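Q: I have 447 residues here and want to know how they pack in 3D. Can you give me a structure?
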Amino acid sequence: MAAVVALLSAACTSGGDAAPDPGPSPGRERVLRVATASDVSQGPVRQDLIEAWDEQEPDVRVEIVKLPSAADDARSQLVAALQSGSADYDVVNIDVVYTAEFAAGKLIRPLDEGLLDGMWDQVKKTAQYDGRTWAVPFNTDAGLLYYRKDIWKDERRRPPVSWSELESSAVDVKDSRQVKKTFPYGYATQLDAYEGLTVNAQEAIWARGGELIDGEGTVRAGTPETEKGLNDLVDRYEEIMPPQAKWADERDSLEMFRDGKVAFMRNWPYVYNVLSADGSKVEGKFGVAPLPGVGVREKSVLGGQNLAITERSEHPEDARRLLAYLAGPAQQRCLLEAGFAPVLRESYEPGGADCSLPGAKSPGAGGEGGREGSGSPERDADGLPVYTRPLKRALSDASPRPVTPYYAAFTELVQTKVHQMLNDRGDDDGSVAAELGDELKEVVRGR
């Protein structure tokens, strides 16, 4: 590998209308450039998988180009580079929400839909736009509830399944009659003005039966249900979260939970192995469950990364082989072991393919993607990592964010409006949902 960076994704496929690669020439090495964001997980399992493919391809050398870790920043840098032609990338790693934008802008090439076989249906949708397939998901994502399981004096107490239960429990953790050690605050999530805030707002709105933009691309934001969801989010911030949650991203929330400032946290699956690493303050003291809901469990926003082949790639068939390899069952099993959400349904069942990474690079062995130095992730009765079952359940209910080439404008508007609510609740006249509805109608028209 020409660059040693933490890889935040990888996935499978290439276009059926792609020109074939030139055959290998004596002494000629083809370079496949993969542009991807930095990885924030515990162990570089995705980079290891790319390196493993690279080692078995004598005529191809993979070069990884590092992008910013924030999805918004990575997207901006990629769009600028691909539109100007200033970068000769072959494969780009993009957040699932930007696939439609890259497809509409003719920055990536269409692919064979058959390469998505075996994937979750909702995961497939993140790679499709305008009736065609433009990317292949490498890893997906769903929000999970992390909770301290060692704190209650009543050891029969179970994790909350509804928002009302979570809100009550978040208050109880301040009561010395209820817990062995009190907590300053109950709950943490991601409320800074970035994509994490859009995710939390969307989930709060869904929990109330509201919607911003439906699956047909129609704006549905100006409803009482949407307003209730937004108010719920602000109420939780004011009543059960630390003040700094308003500026928190995933890492900040993780630190609040790990350091004992909160007893509950919403975060992504990768956090499990980070918190389980040897030396972590909460190692063995926490559990994970699907997100709560209002009366029923909540529908999580679907996250993840998709890999696509650029329109200008000179090596589309090499790229296709790389992506097909990364989306294979053995490689997907490595992701599950490392705390990621695989895109294949079979990866969540007992048995199946073993992780393809050999020896010390296997997740959990020596710290590459599993518990650092602890030998192996904690297992359930089926021999799977303990987060497998709640993760599978969360994915079964998860839904993608709006599929639109104007997603960047959509999320910027949502972040602006919702963060303003968090800052100026006293001045809120209850019209944010209506304002969002009016302004989103302009966004979806590309204005």
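Q: Anything worth noting?
A: The radius of gyration is 22 Å. The chain is about 35% helix and 15% strand.
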